[in-house]
Amino acid sequence: MDELELLKKHWKKEDTQYPHVSANAIYKMILKKSSSIVKWVLIISLLEFGLWTSLALFFKGSKSTQNFDKLDSDYLLIPLSVLGYIILAYFFYLFYRNYRRISATDSAKVLMENILRTRKTVKNYVLFNLLFMVASFAAVLYIEFDQDQALINKAHRAAANGEAFMFYAKIILLVAGIIAIFAGVLLLFYWLIYGLLLRKLNKNYKELKKLELLE
Amino acid sequence: MNNELEHNFVALLEEHQNIVHKVCRLYTNHREAHNDLFQEITIQLWKAYPKFRGDAKFSTWMYRVGLNTAITLYRKSKRTINTYELETYQFKLSAEEYDDTEEQQLKLLYDAVHQLNDIEKALVFLYLEDKDYREISVTLGISEVNARVKMNRIKNKLRTILNP
Q1: What is the overall mean pLDDT for chain B?
Q2: Chain B residues close to A14, C-beta within 8 Å
Q3: Does pTM surpass 0.90?
Q4: Most exposed among A76, B34, B56, B83, judged by the fewest C-beta atoms under 10 Å?
Q5: Could you report the per-residue pLDDT of A47-68, keeping only the tens digit for each?
Q6: Which domains does chain B have, with CATH numbers?
Q7: Domain that holds residue A122
Q8: What is the per-residue DSSP string for A28-67?
């Protein structure tokens, strides 16, 4: 006899063997908070949006930029931050739309795809931020070299001593170092949070995708 | 209004709760995990209930939400699973109905099913619930042909697990 047929025969008889959950217990259950991964994806995503926005505000208000503020930088930095906020709003809209689409009543595959899509929006936003950070650094450096007399003098002195290469190499290394640290922290964060949170989902999604290749 | 919704939902779920129990039966292997998953499925069903139109059967609708929760949404909230000695299911089979060998065989079968991956368990679950390949394909989002091919492979896999 087919193994599953034996199980099926028994499966139907098992109905009476489960502990009965009373209506009262069900009432209590629906008051409890869900611990689904969707909730965690939402929380972590909002934290990420918040982190990047507060990081931008922090840099804007910090003392280290006061010296820089004396320079004529508005023509470049204002459009840049306006662009930043427009893109934030756009990503947030995409995220919200994708998030609303997640429904437990879809097919297993569509549900997984919607969760992964929501995730991807946030990932793209973070990637955008890294690029935006590089662009901002470039803009700031450009303004500094264009207008900051102290820095221009330093550059001239370095050039006169034949150390121009060293001087620029140091600056480039410093900037690259800061960006690398940021990217490193992000990667670690991703590896930890999403690796653990979405491991099961990714595995099952791959399994479903494999089924498409069966024919 | 909200109270009425709640009341209807609880009544329907109380009546059809075995579907949830059976999902838990395949996806968990001890009582505590069973109850934890039962609770999460109940919460997900309740969250989705306002959108339940009644054009599908309540039970069919439950299959989807139940399996989606087990496969995708659910995160184990307790870490005791697999670390302590498991209090395995003890389904009392009445002696008249089953002889020892059949009981033994069933235990082996359930153990084998527990070794399948989450997607395979979903196919087995729907198969045990007597669903046709069309419904299996719609529930999982795969084609009917693939559901059929996969089901045959699962049967072979179970056979290999049982007769190594």
Answers
A1: 84
A2: 22, 25, 91
A3: no
A4: B83
A5: 888 887 787 777 666 655 666 6
A6: 1-81 (1.10.1740.10), 90-164 (1.10.10.10)
A7: 35-212
A8: HHHHSPP--HHHHHHHHHHHHHHHHHHHHHHHHHSGGGHH
